Amino acid sequence: MNFDFELILQSFPLLLLGAGVTVQITVLSVSFGLLIGMFVGIARLSTLWPVKMLAAIYVDFIRGTPLLVQIFLIYFALPLIVGQRIDPFIAAITACSINSGAYVAEIFRGGIQSIDKGQMEAGRSLGMTWAQTMRYIILPQAFKRIIPPLGNEFIAMLKDSSLVSVIGFEELTRRGQLVIARTYGSFEIWITVAFIYLVMTLTISRFVDYLERRYKTDDKH
Question: Which residue positions does the secretion signal occupy (predicted)?
Fold first, then answer.
């Protein structure tokens, strides 16, 4: 078997464009997921039973079903209800954001619960409301502690975003499939796709390690 380096060189620019789309999907999905997860994570700790129950149902349903099924629900099933076709990009971002939000919610919940309860009592004794105490005292401390799991979620979403290729969205995996369909160079292309994913995940991992060290240093000062 001959390894075709020329095929890799010819296909690399196209695959890099796909990698750019993958990063775009990941950044947008995790960003929306952070917003969803923060509010749902706080709702999971609410003393209001209906709010806590709805948040728990959302988290359990999303975490208990495959992302692929969620993508199919958004792209194929939802249009049957609303009567309008959904753009693949919108469907991909929506499904991935909802999925990420459930996992981020548990990360936030764990981070908030790791903060000493006396912090909330101290804030309330200073005349701050529950929301003010959560915003200015609890969440900043919790955020420093959840950087590593948030980094892991970002990496997981980067890899899971390959599933949106099933709806024809041309991210890295889909671009690889299209190149293979044209050139039949399965081995060379999939090795290259894997290498690009590896470089992206290692880069993110190193960046998360840097942030973690930086915040630890700031805490010492």
Answer: none
Phi, psi dihedrals of residue 45, rounded to the nearest 5°: -100, 5
CA distance 221 to 217: 7
Q: What is the pTM of this model?
A: 0.89
φ and ψ at 70, to 5 degrees?
-65, -40
Report how far residue 83's alpha carbon sits from residue 71's, in angstroms, rounded to the nearest whole number: 17
The region that residue 127 occupies, defined by phi over 0 for left and psi between -120 and 50 for alpha, beta otherwise, is left
Integer Cα distance of 154 and 159 in angstroms: 9
| SS3 call for 84 | coil
The answer to whether the Cα torsion of 177, 178, 181, 187 is positive or negative is: negative
User: Which residue stretches of the chain are H helix?
Assistant: 5-44, 49-63, 67-72, 78-82, 88-113, 117-125, 130-133, 139-145, 147-160, 172-183, 186-220
- Report residue 185 as tokens: 């160079």
Which residue type is seen at 88?
P
Report the distance separating Cα 156 and Cα 170, nearest Å.
19
Using CB atoms within 10 Å of the CB of residue 84, give its burial: 0 to 12 exposed, 13 to 18 middle, 19+ buried: exposed
